[in-house]
Design a protein that fits this description.
The complex is a heterodimer. Chain A is of the alpha/beta class. In chain A, 40% of the residues lie in helices and 24% in strands. Chain B has a single domain (29-199, 212-235), classed as Orthogonal Bundle (MetI-like fold). The chains are: A alpha/beta, B mainly alpha.
């Protein structure tokens, strides 16, 4: 444990020498594909030091928003700014993303983590073992990653993302197809990442999960940002009709 | 030819193989040397080329794919003819004096096999890239490292690609007979020897080589299937 604390101290010192990523902002963000406007004029501000949960019905544009923030997609118009700077390779290297369907490299579990450590020039056995330990996958280290169960794969995908020591961690419905035990393991790892200083941006459909994790909520609907605010206020007393209906479990079109 | 001669030929062929006849072994040895060398060179060119074409989006990419696929079915005699011209006295590389040498045969088979390796590996890598692309972008993997990683992760599929290329090289006769000339003890390989001995009427020797060639072809195929099964079992494929 002592070692971990030392490492996060080092990470913070390191962090302060890099340009700040926050506040992160989107300005009049628009994304169109196939003649349809899928992200419609989104102005969003995200602050450091909280777990932000993105909610909304299917097709609300949650995943697209995440991909635009992470620079995986190019906006049709508008800006994504991290600490006032436009998205670039340097910024993306300080972020990591966990996808709904984990992409397992066709190698062993350990080699999956080593791949990311190597990319960041931090390849060390101890660091890898520590990450495997966090994911509870030490026993599987030398097994092919694709032979793992769905929950194990997602745990590996998460600690593999953490191998990059990201300042921002995006998660796109990472537990959508997992059983309760796996969901709980994922949420524990997300908390660990948060405690380690990462900004968390988490897309989910599940109210229970949102309530467990969220400090603040971004509610999307039809490609628009409908509501943003502290989690408690959002769940207790949503400001908009769409959010109210969504929380009531009514059908929202 | 009588039925008796027919079986006689088989018996003689078996004797030659079992006795490891010196001439036979020399021919088999050269065949393997030429085709394996061509395979190694083709792989060194074809894998990175195929991977690049499978990963990078650039204008004319579709055209390259069509071209690669078309080149896969290059007739060996046409390749032989082209290489012959290139190395002939009037050709651009005539001064190398490589015509009728094993080196010329290696060049011809390399020309024949490289498109096969490139086209098949392009398909393999394109499929893998479809799965990896977004995650790699998220990781900010540099292009060179991405190609390297995908070639490694597709290694089982690519090994079967290489074996397909080897099968093509070891079995072709058209290219090596034109540029090699089927010179005894120098450029005579299994396929050219079979063609010659059959036309001379020495069926036993031709058959013996035919049997060896068949065994090699079957082994290659068995190896491909074995690899597939292994890769599946370990979930690498």
């Amino acid at each position: 444990m002592r070692e971990r604390a030392d490492q996060s101290d080092a990470a913070e010192t390191n962090l302060s020498s890099l340009p700040a990523l926050f506040p992160a902002q989107t300005r009049s963000l628009v994304f169109e594909a196939g003649g349809k406007r899928l992200i419609d004029n989104v102005d969003l501000t995200l602050q450091h030091g909280s777990i932000t949960v993105v909610m909304g019905p299917n097709g609300a544009g949650k995943s697209l928003l995440l991909r635009l923030l992470h620079g995986l997609l190019k906006a049709t118009s508008g800006d994504v700014l991290w600490g006032g700077r436009a998205m670039c390779e340097d910024i993306r290297r300080r972020q990591a993303m966990v996808f709904q369907q984990p992409v397992m490299l066709r190698r062993t579990v350990a080699a999956n983590i080593d791949f990311v450590l190597k990319l960041h020039g931090t390849l060390q056995r101890e660091r890898r073992d520590e990450l495997l330990e966090m994911a509870g996958l030490v026993a599987f280290a030398q097994q092919p990653a694709r032979a793992l169960s769905g929950g194990e794969q997602q745990r590996l995908a998460l600690v593999r993302a953490l191998a990059a020591q990201p300042d921002v961690l995006f998660l796109d419905e990472p537990t959508a197809s997992l059983d309760p035990a796996s969901i709980s393991a994922i949420e524990r790892l997300v908390r660990l990442a948060y405690d380690d200083g990462a900004k968390i941006i988490f897309v989910t459909h599940a109210f229970g999960q949102a309530k467990r994790l969220a400090d603040d909520v971004v509610f999307m609907h039809g490609g628009r940002l409908v509501e943003q605010g502290p989690a408690k206020a959002f769940f207790d007393n949503p400001n908009t009709r769409e959010a109210q209906d969504y929380l009531d479990g009514r059908l929202v079109f | 030819m009588h039925v008796h001669d027919f079986f006689q030929a088989f018996r003689l062929a078996a004797d030659l193989v079992l006795a490891a006849d010196a001439d036979l072994m020399e021919i088999i040895g050269l065949s393997l040397r030429v085709s394996l060398t061509a395979l190694v060179i083709s792989s060194l060119i074809g894998f990175p080329l195929g991977a690049a074409a499978g990963i990078w989006r650039f204008p004319g990419r579709g055209l390259i794919a069509i071209l690669m696929n078309a080149l896969m079915s290059l007739p060996p005699v046409v390749v032989g003819l082209l290489v012959y011209f290139t190395f002939s006295r009037v050709g651009p590389f005539g001064w190398l004096e490589l015509l009728y040498t094993p080196t010329a045969m290696i060049v011809a088979q390399t020309v024949l096999v490289t498109p096969i390796i490139a086209a098949l590996s392009r398909q393999v890598i394109e499929d893998l890239n479809r799965e990896y692309a977004e995650q790699f972008r998220s990781f900010s993997v540099p292009p060179g490292a991405a190609i390297q990683a995908m070639l490694w992760d597709a290694r089982y599929s690519l090994l079967t690609v290489a074996l397909a290329g080897f099968g093509r090289a070891i079995a072709e006769v058209g290219a090596v007979i034109i540029v090699g000339g089927n010179i005894n003890h120098y450029t005579r390989v299994m396929t050219t020897a079979i063609a010659l001995e059959t036309s001379k009427g020495d069926l036993a020797f031709a058959l013996a080589l035919g049997i060896v060639l068949l065994v090699i072809a079957l082994s290659v195929n068995a190896a491909v299937m074995g690899l597939r099964a292994t890769a599946m079992r370990y979930a690498y494929a």
